[in-house]
């Protein structure tokens, strides 16, 4: 397989800014990822390269985008909420682009200014790595699960997300349909949904989306395709093609976010760090 070049994280900084401007100034990680693909004109070959094929299905592009966002945040161009939404700061909204070398130099200088004894320095250096590490660990665990267990996890996730009458069917020869359920909105509207789970590394192709749509026609209002991997650009376009039943896509990143949000198989603990500062001026004034 020929070597595939992928933009370095600093070369992805301006595509991230451009993507957020196109999105109206804010966006989820998934929305930013999808828009950056178009802005930077990334190919399917580039998107399919895994960061570490032995630890999970996070792609190299996703990994580098995490670092691009972190550096832009330290530079004061981006901010993010606890719900995973990233946005341009007032400073960021005034910029069309940044000089990646200037951003890198600024962040590196900030790290040097932090004293080694201050715990926040470790958090500063490893912020993106911490985010990546739990994702890698969770993905690795999901890939070790038995297919039936993964289907039960998806069933639980859908129930926790508001679905009712969720059943796992998993019948062979059923067009790849793994289950069905009903999504009720506001207690007034109901949509019959069938879903398919793909627990593997790599990308879901356009042909797999077409096959799933063929199996769902006449049997449900909507389709839901869930994978621990990701989707090719053609697969994403096919899922929302005009004139065809819409298929909602949940890739590995969104799946991990939902599991974290719902506390399914992952616990989040907020740890307070005690910071001690010597008041030199007070001591010397005694």
Structure commentary:
The strands form 3 sheets. The protein has a 5-stranded mixed beta sheet with strand order 4-5-6-8-10, sandwiched between helices. Strands 1-3-2 form a 3-stranded antiparallel beta sheet. It has a two-stranded parallel sheet with strand order 7-9. The protein contains 12 helices and 10 strands. The termini are far apart. It has helices at residues 13-22, 29-39, 44-47, 60-74, 90-93, 100-113, 120-144, 147-160, 206-216, 233-239, 252-262, 280-284, and strands at 26-28, 78-80, 85-88, 163-168, 179-185, 189-198, 203-204, 222-227, 230-231, 247-250. The protein has 286 residues and is of the alpha/beta class. The protein has 2 domains: 9-141, Orthogonal Bundle (Arc Repressor Mutant, subunit A); 146-250, Trna Endonuclease, Chain: A, domain 1 (3-Layer(aba) Sandwich). Helices cover 46% and strands 16% of the residues. The radius of gyration is 22 Å and the shape is globular. Strand 5 (179-185) and strand 6 form a beta hairpin.
What attributes characterize this protein structure?
single chain, 286 residues, alpha/beta, Arc Repressor Mutant, subunit A, Trna Endonuclease, Chain: A, domain 1, 2 domains, 12 helices
- Under CATH, the topology of the largest domain can be stated as Arc Repressor Mutant, subunit A
* Main sheet strand line-up: 4-5-6-8-10
Q: State the end-to-end CA separation.
A: 72 Å
Structural class: alpha/beta
Rounded to the nearest angstrom, the radius of gyration is 22 Å
- Low-confidence stretches at least 5 residues in length (pLDDT < 50)? 116-126
Query: What number of domains?
Result: 2
What fraction of the residues are assigned to beta strands by DSSP?
15-25%
**Averaging pLDDT over every residue, what do you get?**
83
State the shape: globular
CATH C-level of the largest domain = Mainly Alpha
CATH architecture of the largest domain: Orthogonal Bundle
Secondary-structure element order, N to C: HEHHHEEHHHHEEEEHEEHEHH
**Sheet with most strands:** 5 strands, mixed
Based on DSSP secondary structure assignment, what is the total number of beta strands? Answer: 10
């Amino acid at each position: 397989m020929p070597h595939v070049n992928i933009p370095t994280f600093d070369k992805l900084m301006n595509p991230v800014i451009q993507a957020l401007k196109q999105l109206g100034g804010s966006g989820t990680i998934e929305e930013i990822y999808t828009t950056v693909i178009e802005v930077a004109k990334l190919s399917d070959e580039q998107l399919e390269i895994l960061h570490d094929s032995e630890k999970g299905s996070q792609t190299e592009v996703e990994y580098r985008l995490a670092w691009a966002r972190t550096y832009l945040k330290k530079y004061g161009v981006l901010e993010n909420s606890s719900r995973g939404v990233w946005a341009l700061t007032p400073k960021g909204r005034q910029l069309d682009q940044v000089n990646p070398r200037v951003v890198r130099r600024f962040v590196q200088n900030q790290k040097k200014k932090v004293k080694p004894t201050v715990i926040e320095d470790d958090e500063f250096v490893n912020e993106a790595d911490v985010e990546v590490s739990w994702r890698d660990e969770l993905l690795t665990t999901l890939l070790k699960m038995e297919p039936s267990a993964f289907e039960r996890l998806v069933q639980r996730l859908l129930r926790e997300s508001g679905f009712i009458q969720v059943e796992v069917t998993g019948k062979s020869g059923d067009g790849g349909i793994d289950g069905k359920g009903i999504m009720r909105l506001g207690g007034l509207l109901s949509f019959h949904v069938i879903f398919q789970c793909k627990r593997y590394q790599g990308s879901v192709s356009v042909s797999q989306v077409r096959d799933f749509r063929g199996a769902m026609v006449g049997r449900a209002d909507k389709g839901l395709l869930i994978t621990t991997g990701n989707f090719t650009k053609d697969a994403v376009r096919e899922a929302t093609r005009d004139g065809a039943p819409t298929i909602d896509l949940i890739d590995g990143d969104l799946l991990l976010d939902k599991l974290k949000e719902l506390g399914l198989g992952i616990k989040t603990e907020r740890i307070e760090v005690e910071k001690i500062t010597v008041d030199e001026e007070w001591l010397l004034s005694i």
